[in-house]
């Protein structure tokens, strides 16, 4: 597509249309700024038959941000699961914490939401926003930061210009590298197992986390009665767990959660 001069100039270019970049685009667009949002991925497409493994617990503050950009009404028509209680306990001490929504007069503490439900709703809203241009299936090839404006060349061949470039392009951020921001990286020797599991007991809309000597294990209540688990473990334990059959894995999980 050939762009005219004014189509190429934006107030803000945002690299990355994940939860952070899309939400940032929606919030800045409400201020009347012109926004270009770029992501190498396709248009995110939430599907009712495909409960995605990548879910997030969004607290009330995050929900309020998504409400303020008018995305929450759409997200909540997809698949969201409220959590009303959080239990956190430690395997090596008597330490235990419980937060309950009802104790503070709240109906819930947050919702478990598939990340794709958030991004697909935000992108749907942004597609209908006049001052936002989306470049999905495209990527930044080169960044030229001048004194006032910066220009960005896309893989599709177009060059766009803005006064501000936001890097919301994930852990291997191209924008971070171009800005010369260094990383202090260190291995923390953990690998996580992520799954949705069916449990004998009801999850009671409770999010749980147990701190084991080998790493934290979290369970998040899903709307279909299952729970999403994120089990962070040492590489040795990870390999052992990953090699177990379903029955043995379920037994290890039950032990690790003390049957809760
Ligand atoms: C197992 C696990 C569980 C988690 N649970 C929770 C939770 O319960 N609650 C919570 O709040 N958070 C949770 N998080 C963290 C949360 O998922 C991340 O903080 C969040 O997804 C980060 O969003 P993002 O938009 O910054 O990055 P990403 O989701 O990584 O998105 C980055 C985007 O940038 C794009 N991109 C990459 N390179 C370029 C480029 N050069 N130019 C343009 N675009 C580019 C990518 O395609 C991608 O769409 C969890 C994370 C993990 C791993």
From TrEMBL:
Keyword set, alphabetical order: FAD, Flavoprotein, Monooxygenase, Oxidoreductase
Tagged with keyword rRNA-binding: no
Domain FAD-binding: 155-203
TM spans (from-to): none
Full protein name: Uncharacterized protein
Organism, as annotated: marine metagenome
Pfam families named among the record's database cross-references: FAD_binding_2 (PF00890), FAD_binding_3 (PF01494)
GO BP, sorted A to Z: ubiquinone biosynthetic process
Span of the signal peptide: none
Cofactor(s) named in the record: FAD
NCBIfam families: Ubi-OHases
Recorded family membership: Belongs to the UbiH/COQ6 family.
């Amino acid at each position: 597509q050939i762009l005219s001069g004014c189509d190429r100039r934006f107030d803000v270019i945002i690299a990355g249309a994940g939860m952070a970049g899309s939400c940032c685009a929606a919030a800045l667009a409400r201020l009347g700024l012109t926004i270009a949002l770029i992501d190498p991925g396709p248009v995110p497409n939430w599907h009712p038959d495909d409960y995605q493994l990548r879910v997030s617990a969004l607290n009330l503050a995050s929900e309020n941000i998504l409400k303020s950009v008018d995305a929450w009404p759409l997200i909540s028509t997809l698949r969201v699961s409220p959590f009303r209680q959080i239990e956190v306990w430690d395997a090596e001490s008597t330490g235990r914490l419980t937060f309950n929504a009802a104790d503070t007069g709240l109906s819930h503490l947050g919702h478990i939401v598939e990340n794709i439900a958030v991004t697909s709703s935000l992108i749907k809203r942004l597609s209908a926003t006049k001052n936002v241009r989306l470049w999905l299936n495209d990527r930044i090839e080169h960044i030229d930061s001048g004194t006032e404006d910066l220009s960005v060349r896309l893989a599709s061949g177009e060059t766009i210009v803005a006064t501000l470039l936001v890097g919301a392009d994930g852990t291997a951020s191209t924008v971070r590298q171009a800005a010369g921001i260094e990383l202090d990286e260190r291995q923390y020797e953990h690998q996580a197992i992520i799954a949705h599991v069916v449990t004998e007991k009801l999850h009671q809309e409770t999010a749980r986390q147990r701190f084991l000597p080998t790493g934290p294990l979290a369970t998040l209540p899903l709307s279909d009665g299952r729970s999403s688990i994120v089990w962070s473990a040492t590489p040795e334990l990870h390999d052992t767990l990953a090699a177990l059959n379903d029955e043995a894995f379920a037994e290890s999980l039950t032990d690790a959660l003390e049957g809760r």
